Amino acid sequence: MKSLTIAIACALLFAYQVFADERSVLACVTVYWHGEGSGGHACWNGARLREGDCGVDPKKIPYGSKVVFPDATCVAVDSGPGVVNRKSARSCGRTAAERNAIVIDRFFDTKQKAIAWAKAHPRFMTLRILAPGTEKATDLVDAKNQGPPSALK
Q: Which member of 31, 36, 67, 128 has the greatest number of CB atoms within 10 A?
């Protein structure tokens, strides 16, 4: 009986690791840029923000995770009160699932780029989240950018 319990615990531990590396979530995507009151630095560590960064709730998506959008892969490096309290999802969501969605705030270098991206994409979308250190993130970017993963080139 003891060995069965240990075997099940080990299996669950390994299964958790497989599913923890990658998951899909419904997200309300907002945009921000330099000079929008947020400045150009991440709030949690003061690092300079650049295009390809995004703000997340660190309790739900750890910093350093990859957030895979339809057109790019961003890195979770920032946070903010609007992201954590999910204000945008709660106010704009039409269904219960949308009102309960997480909020991801995508950073752009300019206001024009941010607004153009927001107009061209839906506010709610299903995004893939890749845990920090997940090798699949580089494979995915390579696959979108012309072919096989870099390990196969």
A: 67
Q: pLDDT (tens digit, 9 = 90+) per residue, 3-40?
A: 545 555 544 444 444 445 789 999 999 999 887 555 56
Count of positions (residues) in the chain: 153
The whole-angstrom separation of Cα 99 and Cα 104 is 14
- pLDDT tens sequence across 85-122: 998 898 899 999 999 999 999 999 899 999 999 999 99
From residue 16, alpha-carbon distances to 10, 13, 53 in Å are 10, 5, 27
- Residue 127: helix, strand or coil by DSSP? strand
DSSP-assigned letter for residue 25: E
Assign 39 to helix, strand or coil. Answer: coil
How far is C-alpha 51 from the chain's CA centre? 14
Paired tokens of 135? 């090798």
- Gyration radius of the chain over CA positions: 18
Distance of CA 3 to the CA centre of its chain: 39
